[in-house]
Amino acid sequence: METVKITINDIELRVPKGRTILEAAKMIDIQIPTLCYLNMEGFHIANQTSSCRVCLVEVVGRAALVPSCSEKVTEGMVIRTDSAKAVAARRMSVELLLSNHPKECLTCQKNLECELQSLAQRLGITDIGFEGEMMNYEIDHSSLSLVKNPNKCIMCRRCETMCNEVQTCGILSAISRGFDAYVGPAFHLDMVDTSCTFCGQCVAVCPTGALTEVNNVRDVVDALNDPSKHVVAQVAPAIRVAIGEMFDMDPGTITTGQLATSLRRLGFDGVFDTDFAADLTILEEASELVHRIKHGGRLPILTSCCPAWVRFFEHQFPDLLDVPSTCKSPQMMMGTIVKTYYAEKLNIDPKDLVVVSIMPCLAKKAEAARMEMDVDSMHNVDLVLSTREFGAMLKEAGTNFAHLPSSDFDSILGESTGAAVIFGTTGGVIEAAVRTAYEWLTGEVLKNVNFEQLRGLEGIRSATVKIGDMDLNIGIAHELGNARKLLEEIRQGKSHYHAIEIMACPGGCIGGGGQPYHHGDMEIIRKRQEAIYREDAGKTKRKSHENQEVLKLYEEYLGEPYGEMAHKLLHTKYTAKDRI
Amino acid sequence: METTKSTAMDFSKETLKALDDYIESLDDKQGLLIHILHKAQELFGYLPQDLQLYIARKLDIPAAKVFGVVSFYSFFAQEKRGKHNVSICMGTACFVQGAERVYDALRSALGVEAGGTSEDGLFTLNAVRCIGACGLAPVALIDDKVFGHLSEEKIKDIIKEYREGMQDEDQYAESAV
After folding, report:
1. CB contact under 8 A, B4 and A164
2. How far apart are CA A192 and CA B1, in angstroms?
3. Do A577 and B1 touch (CB under 8 A)?
4. What is the ipTM of this complex?
5. What's the gap in Å between the CA of A31 and the closest CA on chain B?
6. Which of A74, A99, A124 is at the close of a domain?
7. Which of residues 153 through 192 in chain A touch B, CB cutoff 8 A?
8. Is the pLDDT of residue A558 over 80?
9. Is A108 assigned a catalytic role?
10. What's the order of all strands across the beta sheet hosting A470-478?
11. CA atoms within 13 A on the CB side of A110
């Protein structure tokens, strides 16, 4: 590898050619503050706009300071990151940003998670030397998923990188110029009127409170305080490997048992596992796959668990609405079963039931209100909390989460298999479907349930799985830009896949827009994924069709998988939408 | 509103076809967005949202990107413009020489604020920064003609003459320095 010799703060070192000053400094543990810069290593995602000027350093012999995040090292370069000139310039950059930033940290949703706030703290800024006009934009509360407050925007463009380059949705752009410039959709539209998928990846990377989730904690607390309501909770698979991070537990710590206990202590009347509904989803989805294969139906079949992905194809590929599975997502299947089967069993009027979901996802908030999902004009799910919101609720209650005793989820919607927990990661849904489809198509027992070839974090993966004498071609994509490539193949009639799994977020739900902030440390996502597979491996049952409570649900209530009742309750339809 | 609707444009088919033909003639369509917007403004006079959306879909690029470019460059107009563009210079030199009084006279003569178009569709009023003709201060542009040493009366007369179709502007027009 070609290297160059440079000097940073009197330390000589050799650095691979092409590295930035920031990367070189990191090699010898020299800290340079950054703000707009974001490098999601291993995911090929980087934001290097050099817009904030917080990482300025001095290069000897140059009149102007340079942004270290984008300036590449050259032979013989002599750099000072700690000179009085560089330190003063960086401080001024932060002060200028703060001069046009609301000073409402105490009540900001990003309090203690804000990168501008921690930067101000790190630089010891107690006094802002500049005063002037402040931005005064309307706050966009239009959607059920996210809130956009341009007044807190520092124009780092991380959200644009996620929306335009990674997800290829192109909702956000810099609008207007100079002091009037802000980031928003075309024609000053409200977010809800755009083809935003509400994946929440803009929220996941926003350094400040300019993009946050719609906070539903107060609504949940109100429901819990209402004695006339029977409030049940369901927890998605990806929560159990991530929420511990909010309580100083190592990333990848499995907290399934603590989750059940914590929900019960908060006063939920039923504490259920979305994993149960994931197993139910597999019975429906594998049936649909087998049906399409046996009856010459439309192939490939696409998974439909991810609501951001659903909105994506409705807006971007409205000509392909017959390709995705018609299965509702596990969250919505759980809601439906609670408001029908469970309500009947306990003799509760569905109107008195409040279904609360804890989800790693912001699109789930919008999904819950989709009219296409309603049964008897009633929403299946009433309130959705992100992992972060639920963590905040536990903190408010003073829950010592890390040291809670474990407990099981409640019967009759609490049992789950290993196939369900892997729904939380890219590759998991399709692996779970294959485990069941294999046994159904061949009539044989599947001995090794680990389909390693479907696992990993590459953006697009493909594998061929031998099922009897059939070669099942499987495609997997996470991030919507990768999904788009597989969709284009289908549109052009070039797709050779039988089944494709899509998840919108990097890594799947483990990297969802509602998860604890990773602040660019993608090692966290890898550890969450490892934990998901660890949880799966530790389960005694690892195939969805072995879930006894699910089988009982069919026996007592639904009848056959993919049958008439299942169709009415567990399947949905899609609506073509415009792209804007 | 769940589904966004694109309202039908009431532009003539011929003009739209001229734009389509222009876009078709380009090799790097997505890379030449600014050229396409210039052409569209030349053909339609301005760039309403429907037209921006039309171009975005034609080029298969996000509407936000098109809007970002259109809103960035002051050359691009998103509102229908009058037949004549009246730009009054509010730069320092003109301001000191009484541009504000001329501007007030223009506003009352045209019945609009800056950015607006007079009811008869003849004039769009703009207040602009220094146009580099300080020797003629206070100065205004009507389309590409320069009018210098203006007073309230003088500008009212010019507007009046434009209105009456007596466009013998040469007696007032002076070349820019």
Report:
1. no
2. 7
3. no
4. 0.91
5. 35
6. A99
7. 164, 169-177, 184-187, 189, 192
8. yes
9. no
10. A301-302, A499-503, A470-478, A460-467
11. 27
DSSP codes joined into one string, chain B: --S--PPPP---HHHHHHHHHHHHT-SSTGGGHHHHHHHHHHHHSS--HHHHHHHHHHHT--HHHHHHHHHH-TTS-SS---SEEEEEE-SHHHHHTTHHHHHHHHHHHHT--TT-B-TTSSEEEEEES--S-GGG-S-EEETTEEE-S--HHHHHHHHHHHHTT---GGGTB----
- A13: domain CATH number is 3.10.20.740
Question: End-to-end CA distance of chain A, in Å?
Answer: 45
Query: Do A414 and A347 sit in the same domain of this protein?
Result: yes
Residue whose token pair is 């009046």: B160
User: Taking CB atoms and an 8 Å cutoff, what residues of chain A touch B53?
Assistant: 186, 580
What tokens were used for A306? Answer: 């991810």
Active site residue A36: no
A110 with A139, same domain: the answer is: yes
Among B1, B3, B68, whose Cβ lies nearest the Cβ of A173? B68
Q: Residue B10: its pLDDT value, please?
A: 56
Q: Which two tokens stand for residue B57?
A: 């879909």
Mean pLDDT of A58-70: 96
| A578 belongs to a structural domain | no
Q: Are residues A221 and A205 in the same domain?
A: no
Tally of structural domains, chain A: 3
Residue A524 to residue A520: CA distance in whole angstroms? 9
**pLDDT for the residue B120:** 86
Q: Which of A213, A230, A253 is the last residue of a domain?
A: A213
pTM value? 0.90
All residues of chain B having their beta carbon less than 8 Å from the beta carbon of residue A184 are: 64
The secondary structure element, H or E, covering residue A522 is none
User: Is the preceding peptide bond at A412 cis, omega within 30 degrees of 0?
Assistant: yes
Whether A331 and A474 share a structural domain: yes
pLDDT tens track for A16-56: 999 999 999 999 999 999 999 999 998 999 999 999 999 99
Q: What is the CATH number of the domain that holds A127?
A: 3.30.70.20
**CA gap A469, A474 in Å, rounded:** 16
Whether residues A92 and A235 share a domain: the answer is: no
Does A133 lie in the same domain as A34? no
Do residues A209 and A230 share a domain?
no
For residue B74, give both structure tokens.
Answer: 């002051």
Residues of A in contact with B58 (CB under 8 A): none
- Amino acid B159: pLDDT: 93
Which A positions 233-292 lie with beta carbon below 8 A of chain B?
Answer: none
Catalytic residue at A364? yes
In a domain, A360, yes or no: yes
pLDDT tens track for A390-406: 999 999 999 999 999 99
Q: Is A81 helix (H, G, I), strand (E, B) or coil?
A: coil
Best interface-test mutation with A: which of B1, B2, B50 has the largest number of A CBs within 10 A? B2
The parent domain of residue A32 ranges over 3-99
Instruction: Tell whether A92 is covered by a domain.
Output: yes
Enumerate residues 6+ apart whose C-beta is below 8 A from B165.
none
- Rounded to 5 degrees, φ, ψ at A178 are 60, -140
- A156 and A21 in a common domain: no
Q: Which of B2, B3, B49 sits opposite A187 (nearest CB)?
A: B49
Contact A175 B71 (CB under 8 A): yes
Q: Is residue A369 within 8 angstroms of chain B, CB to CB?
A: no
Residue B1 is predicted with a pLDDT of 34
Q: Are the Cβ atoms of B52 and A186 closer than 8 angstroms?
A: yes
According to DSSP, residue A207 is labeled: S
Q: A511 lies in a domain?
A: yes
Please, which pLDDT band fits residue A347 given cuts at 50, 70 and 90? very high
B87 C-beta neighbours (distance < 10 Å), count:
17
Q: Which CATH number goes with the domain that contains A320?
A: 3.40.50.1780
The pLDDT of residue B8 = 45
What residues in chain B have per-residue pLDDT under 50?
A: 1-8, 166, 168-171, 174-177
